[in-house]
């Protein structure tokens, strides 16, 4: 191979290397523990600017942020005819006001239009809400993807003890949330870790889209809990965000105090410095 051909190949490789991150930065997930918003754009298809799909999407998401007919914080609807039919869901956190819910849906919709423009499917997880749309049917089905895992940068004081209590705590909240009705499947609360040298609270919330049945909600949240060891093990906080459910935990109160309550866990005893189930 002569030197001119080698130079061309090298130049193309450098150019592709420079372009690839730029493309990924626009469409790939953007999510850190300190961010209010996590987003994920999809590549199942695209829509044209000014086309029927875009008009249906704009109208549908706008109707969510202005809907005062329900205070449950859950909206799901479709608009248009195939192949331009849009299916969308908005789920607000179970403890937020209707005004904060609508503000979050509005802001999340703007983010989708800005960063996922022309994509047939996208999702945004905010602190107060989740907004998702797709050209495929997304109602009443448990979906684990897309998903994001966001660990706290801070370690727990006693990681082993913390994780043991956390797992039992989240299982208890899961049972409560899954037993919710078709308007809300949400549970929040805190537990206190009584350690040998310190006392530490854990605050947590779990939530499913309420169009899921009890078993599907439970399965979704248990699947989210199972991801904690690999994403957030030993950390004092974390978020597991899925298409159909989400959870968050922290040592500081991060939700409305009116939704908080002390959760009683099944009895555990400490033997030789370790927690054991009775």
From TrEMBL:
Transmembrane segments: none annotated. It holds the Pfam family Stress-antifung. Residues 1-24 form the signal peptide. InterPro entries: GNK2, GNK2_sf. Gene3D superfamilies: Gnk2 domain, C-X8-C-X2-C motif. Keywords: Repeat, Signal. CDD domains: Gnk2-like. This is Gnk2-homologous domain-containing protein. It comes from Malus baccata.
